[in-house]
Structures are given as structure tokens and as C-alpha cells.
Amino acid sequence: MDYSLLSSLVRAVLPSQERKKKELPLEAEASGHPEVGEGGGGWDDDDSGWATVGLSVVRIVACFVTMMATTIVWAVIMFLLFPWPYERIRQGNLWGHLTGRLMMWILGNPIIVEGSEFSNTRAIYICNHASPIDIFLVMWLTPTGTVGIAKKEIIWYPLFGQLYVLANHLRIDRSNPAAAIQSLNEIASDIKKNNLSLIIFPEGTRSRSGRLLPFKKVNNTSMEPTKGFMHIALQTRLPIVPMVFTGTHLAWKNNSLRAQHGCVTALLGGTTPARCGGMARHIGHVV
User: Fold this and answer.
1) Segments forming the whole domain that contains residue 135
2) Which of 122, 144, 165, 186 could form a disulfide with 93 if both were Cys (CB 3.0 to 4.6 A apart)?
3) Which residue(s) pair with 112 in the sheet?
């Protein structure tokens, strides 16, 4: 294992100057800036009233209907582009940019994005995952030419899963370590050959508390995390860009139809504990 190369790939995303910051209020008034790694800010104290619950359900239904509409349109495009798999990836990214932005507008949560300059970087993006909102933000913020990697069962997710497969994104069988390792080698080759970026959720599942979970191993074997996104980083020589979301686990909780109003933060590119907490420590342990 070339640890010096691996360390340089991680350091490649450290900013040489103060990171750009832009606030994207989706309503007339933003509700404050959450501390990175500490959850969201400005959350509604009373979210149990019938009016609040009703509005939440309406917003989530509107998200589903909107995703259905955009998915139908892009599914037609994907079928027309079926002979060109890598053009389908880019069209899938365009669908994600539009749909992710619409989802966040419908939900109405103010968003603060830090490190937006990294959203145009060809890289391996590693993200924490605690809420469906993380998916919307990833769809919106990652650059065109980004391919996802997920468990093979994603095809059964309504709308998103089917378009994910049509857009030529990648799936692995985590229950078969040998096949998973072979898939990683093929993925690295495709990324390098076709000048793609990669998005991956190394925890392997959603965090219920919003805290970062240990990075997933294949089938709980002795396979190290470096055989995952670190393995691909070594093969492709791409920099590793953490993408840390905070407040999303409060904005839309797991297995719930309750969407709350409050600020969420997306931090791209920070690899120091002061900037992105647990993600930096996890990367440090892997390296």
C-alpha cells in the first residue's frame, strides 16, 4: 500500500486560502448558521401541531410528485441514449442538478454551502448519510461527469433506483467479497478511462443520530476500508473530497414523513477535525 501517495491525495483538497462561503436561502429569511458537526441551527421548537404535520406531508408528497415528473422525462432521454452509457451518466447528473435543487426548494430549508469551489473538482467525493436530504444535496452539488456507487439493492428504490441504473451508475454486491473487490477494480478503470468523478457513502447505511458511523467493510470480513474508496483513489490518482452534511438528520428524520424547518449545512473539501470533525478522524484512521 502506497501510504505516501494516499496521504497526498487527501492533502490535495486542503485549501490554500480561506474557503469560499455562500449562503443559499430558500425562503425569505434564513434561520441561522449551524456549527459544522453539531447539527442544524434555527430549528422549530414546536413541530407537533396538526398544521405543521400537514405542511410537512404536503412538502414530502410534492417532492415525490416532482421527482416522478423529472424522472419520467429523463427516463425517455436515457432510453434514447442507451447505446452511449457515459452520456447517460452525464444526463443523470443533469437530472440530479435539477431535481436535487427542486427538492430542496420544496422542503424550504435554508442551505449554507462552504467550499463550493470543490463542487467543480474531478475527485472522489465521500459523504456522510443520515437523511434522504443528503441524497438531494449530493445530486445537486456534485459536478457533471460524476458516477455513484451503491449496493445492488438500490434498483428497488422507487423512481430513484430505476433512474440510477438507467444512468449507468454503479452497483456492487456487498455480500460477495470477491465480486465486490473485482467490481472496485473495474470501477477504478472506468473512472480513469472516462475522466469521471465518484460519489460514495462509506458508512454503508444511514446514521439515525446524525453522527458519523464506522466505514463499511465488505460483508464484515477483514477487508480494510482502504479496499473501498481508498483503493479507488490509489488506482485513479484522484483527490479525496469529503462532503459533510449537518442538520439533515433533523430536517427529515429516517423512516418519517416529518420534514422540519431549519438550516442545513454542506461542507466540501475540509479534511481537518476543526472543520469536519468525525469525517477527518475516520479518514485519518484509514490512511
Assistant:
1) 3-14+21-286
2) 144
3) 23, 265
Residue 11 has pLDDT above 60, yes or no: no
Predicted confidence (pLDDT) per residue in 145-180, tens digit:
999 988 888 889 888 889 999 999 988 887 777 777
CATH number of domain containing 82: 3.40.1130
- Bridge partners (DSSP) listed for residue 241: 125
The residues with which 240 forms a beta bridge, in sequence order, are 124
Number of domains the chain is built from: 1
| Each residue's pLDDT tens digit, 28-66 | 233 333 443 444 455 554 556 777 788 888 999 999 999
Distance CA 240, CA 257 (A): 34
SS3 assignment for the chain: CCHHHHHHHHHCCCCCCCCCEEEECCCCCCCCCCCCCCCCECCCCCCCCHHHHHHHHHHHHHHHHHHHHHHHHHHHHHHHCCCCHHHHHHHHHHHHHHHHHHHHHHHCCCEEEECHHHHHCCCEEEECCCCHHHHHHHHHHCCCCEEEEEEHHHHHCCCHHHHHHHCCCEEECCCCHHHHHHHHHHHHHHHHHCCCEEEECCCCCCCCCCCCCCCCCHHHCCCCHHHCHHHHHHHHCCCEEEEEEECHHHHECCCCCCECCCEEEEEECCCCHHHHCHHHHHHHHHC
Record the pTM. Answer: 0.76
Total count of residues recorded for the chain: 287
